[in-house]
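User: structure tokens for Protocatechuate 3,4-dioxygenase subunit alpha, please.
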Amino acid sequence: MTGGSAALPPTPSQTIGPFFGHALPFAGGGDLAPAAHPGAVTVHGRVHDGAGAPVPDAIVELWQNGPEGRPPRAPGSLARRDGDLAQEFTGFGRVATDAEGRWSARTLRPGARAGRAPQVSVCVFARGLLHHLFTRLYFPDDPAALAADPLLASLDPARRATLVATAEPLGPAPRYRFDIHLQGEKETVFLDFRDFRDFRDFR
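Assistant: Done. Predicted tokens:
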């Protein structure tokens, strides 16, 4: 190693990754519901790092029940093209963030499981994370259901708010904003599961 302040090129041990945006996204990954579905809603937001800066190459996965409160059984979650599959609600989506950390998906409001408010299970992959992160997106439309949800009830109000999306009265279809903060003052509440099946236990 030489003296002085000359910049040295990064070595393999100094690089960051993996870079999920180059491998995991697929066409139509944010289309959990077809565009023509009368109940379609948009969920969107940004992924921020601990300093509040956008994370440009994160992946956001969404898992949820259908409006009737049961997990959908339609095939084709990874192949939403033309034909019959384009008319199905799959309950699974995977979207990459853009250069400003933004992500967006089209879905349906999920039905509730007994004793729990309607929610979407969210999994976040991002560079620099040794393990992906699990959280939940709740809809703000039913305050009574939110107040009775056991997870939300266990959190103080400020922390609880990081899991509840904000309704946006824009456009003909409902829109909900859900920003994800990986660290810092506004850090989203993340969940610890012993088994991946527990993460998907929205049923």
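User: Anything notable?

Assistant: The domain at 16-199 is CATH 2.60.130.10 (Protocatechuate 3,4-Dioxygenase, subunit A).
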